[in-house]
Structures are given as structure tokens and as C-alpha cells.
Structure prediction request, 160 residues.
Amino acid sequence: MPIYSNQVEHHVLGGLLKHPDVLPDIDSFVNVGDFYNEVHQTIYCVLRESILNEDKIDKVLVGTKISNLGISSKDDIEIYDYINTLYHTSITKSGVEEACKELVKFRIRRELSETADRIKDHVTNSSCETLEEIISKSDSILSILLDANASTTKILTCCP
Prediction:
């Protein structure tokens, strides 16, 4: 079962539509890979690029950019209507930051789950290795993930 929350992704995207000035506060720890849903990934990329380019953040313009990328709907809802729904998300600027932290937490949980599966596969198929080799390889698999997320974890735990 995938580890994600459409509601959290929805809050982050709606928050960025309503509070584009929050991007500098979250841009250091949120990225497209934090979104599980592919349409949400695209919406995030369009919003981020528009905000960084200092374009006007208008739901129709955002919808048009997404439509131009070949996305016409999300969950059988026309993309313009979906963006409009996102825009009407009731969320404060601080709420966006909190939702972003939750979004990253979901991504890290997915990565930990995938890493645990890789370790399990290694342990299951390592009957010819010594105990030291099994532990070393398992530690190596986990260390790659921990190293990749060290700065994000520090940001998330240091933020009020």
C-alpha cells in the first residue's frame, strides 16, 4: 500500500496558489519528488516555475499551462475545475509550511519502506555471504538513504 496523502498534496498546492510568497520558505526542502501523484507533480512544477519567474499566479493561467502540457483532467475532473478547487483550499501561510513538512515526511516514509524492502531482498538472498558482509551491505543500503535525507531532516527538525 503506497504511503501518501492526496489531502496533504492538495493542501500544499492550494496553499501555493493562495500564498505564492511562501515558496522561498519551503523551496529548500520541498521538491517535485515529494508528491506521489503525477498530476500533482506537474501542478507543483508549473506553480514553482511561475512563482520563480514572478509570473502572476492566476488559476486560469496555471490551468492553461498545465493543459498545454497535455494534462486535461485529474480524477475525471477537468483540470481548470481541479485548479479552481485547489484555489479554494482554506489554508494559511503557516498552514502551507506545516503541510509541506508532512508532505516531505510522507516521501521519506516511502523511501524508508522501499529501502527496507531492498534490505529484506538482500538478506533473503545472501546465504553465501558472511554475517559481516550481510550487515555491512544492509548498513550501506540504509546509509545511502540517510545521507540523502540528512539535510532535509535537519531543516524539518530545526524549523519551529
The chain has a mean pLDDT of 91. The chain has seven helices and two strands. Strands lie at 73-74, 77-78.
